[in-house]
User: What shape does this take?
Amino acid sequence: MTKSLNLTKNKPENLMNMAYEVLKNAICSNKIKPGSLLSETQIACELGMSRTPVREALKMLAIEGYVEIRTGIGAYVQSISYKEAVDIYEVRGAIEILAAKTAIYNITEKDVEILKKRFNSLLAKNKNNEQIGVDEFVEIDLRLHELLVERCDNQFAQAIMEKIIDRVK
Assistant: This one.
């Protein structure tokens, strides 16, 4: 009997986490644009769950600054201001210097070759006057920054950078 209660008790938390991850990924990948209204009912329907876990996920996203909840109106994807973008990149630059100091010893030749190949493909496109999509460039650039964080030996720098990289996305 107790196990059954625990499973029921954990289910909404798991659904909330699922809704949170789906929404955060959609926001970070720009599938849901800044300024978009997020309908609890529509999201719940699409995810096959009730509105409660969606509402809780939206509250978590609001705490993290991805969503703004306007009482009586609904939740909107938060736009980022120019000042916020400058601040994020300033902090990112400072922490990446710290991360790079230890990451340099942990980055493998294979890591370097993969990045080199990706950047060279962009150079080749540029040389051939082919259009390079913003998404294509950003994906490769983010991978470089993520690699620095992954190979860094400072767990606090990693935790901070993971949040910053999400905001950069």
Notes: The CA atoms of residues 103 and 151 lie 5 Å apart. The first helix runs from residue 2 to 28. Helices lie at 2-28, 40-47, 51-63, 82-103, 109-127, 134-151, 155-168.
